[in-house]
């Protein structure tokens, strides 16, 4: 059950409790599951308990995959039930940390925006796009909300278009322009008695709803399965028949990069990589009442890992480490043209 499900169709408190129980069964996925549980608690109105979950994650002795995201969500939640000073301090900490993941930036900027801190929101969006998109040939899908949010806030502040606004227009795919969608005067048209103005506003609202639904249709990336060298060796020793799928580790890595580039070239958005482990794969095969030797399980296993929040977005941000685990930057490793 996703947190955006209408309240009349789900008991958010019960769903949060179910996700907490599931996190206990799958500790390796606890971060993603508890974040979803916190979202349900926020929707139920129990924001203090949601903050408790965020604190639980942040105090985890095992560390987090994305601590900046958890802090951003905690700040946004705190501000909504009266803890403005603490929220502001956390937001400033997120900005100083300068995460490479766009999601924390979006959350803190939108939190500022929702509390009419438009100048601060604009500064945050702008800092994020400069840090994450400077010299990037094409903005990854995950960064689009940064461009759109910045465009929206600049329209509300009455600022003229700049190069980042032009880039936002380029990646925007709906028939109605961003200038129309983000027009501060739109609210007045809702009270108009002019049928033409009302019809135009209905069209704009439909376009916005279409964009929202399109975003929600991607709860997790289209993911490709990656086996680290040690795990692949163990996998093939235990299940030699899978060697037809994975002749060598080097070929396996090259195949991943080629497949992702082909998917990207075909227009498939929101691509990612999930990393497998032999025990996890064996448990998945058992749950499917099948043998790990069955190669048809591999894509299903990848999809299951992605649905549990295990996917890492591809391609990595500029300067980030390569997904293969070599320790080199992506641009120096599989990100090269000849990879």
TrEMBL record:
Classify the source by domain of life.
Bacteria
Q: What is this protein called?
A: Preprotein translocase subunit SecA
């Amino acid at each position: 059950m996703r947190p955006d499900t209408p309240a009349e169709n789900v008991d958010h408190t019960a769903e949060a409790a179910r996700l907490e129980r599931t996190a206990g069964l799958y500790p390796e996925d606890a971060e993603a599951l508890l974040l979803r549980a916190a979202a349900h608690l926020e929707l139920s109105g129990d924001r203090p308990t949601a903050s408790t979950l965020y604190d639980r994650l942040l105090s985890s002795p095992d560390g987090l995959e994305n601590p900046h995201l958890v802090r951003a969500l905690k700040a946004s939640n705190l501000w909504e039930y009266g803890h403005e000073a603490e929220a502001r301090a956390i937001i400033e900490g997120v900005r100083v940390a300068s995460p490479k993941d766009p999601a924390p930036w979006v959350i803190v900027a939108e939190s500022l925006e929702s509390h009419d801190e438009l100048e601060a929101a604009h500064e945050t969006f702008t800092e994020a796009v400069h840090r994450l998109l400077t010299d990037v040939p094409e903005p990854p899908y995950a960064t689009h909300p940064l461009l759109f949010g910045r465009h929206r806030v600049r329209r509300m502040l009455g600022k003229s278009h700049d190069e980042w606004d032009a880039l936002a227009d380029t990646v925007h795919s709906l028939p109605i322009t961003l200038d129309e969608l983000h027009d501060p005067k739109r609210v007045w048209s809702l009270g108009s008695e002019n049928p033409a103005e009302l019809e135009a506003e209905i069209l704009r609202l439909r376009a916005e709803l279409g964009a929202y639904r399109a975003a929600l249709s991607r709860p997790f990336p289209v993911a490709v399965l990656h086996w680290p060298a040690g795990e692949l060796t163990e996998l093939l020793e235990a299940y030699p028949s899978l060697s037809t799928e994975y002749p060598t580790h080097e070929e396996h890595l090259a195949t991943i990069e080629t497949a992702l580039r082909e998917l990207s070239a075909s227009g498939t958005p929101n691509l990612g990589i999930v990393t497998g482990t032999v025990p996890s794969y064996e448990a998945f095969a058992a749950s499917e009442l099948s043998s790990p030797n069955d190669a048809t399980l591999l894509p299903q296993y990848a999809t299951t890992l992605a649905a549990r929040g295990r996917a890492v977005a591809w391609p990595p941000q500029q300067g980030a480490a390569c997904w293969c685990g070599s320790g080199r930057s992506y641009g120096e490793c599989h990100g090269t043209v000849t990879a």
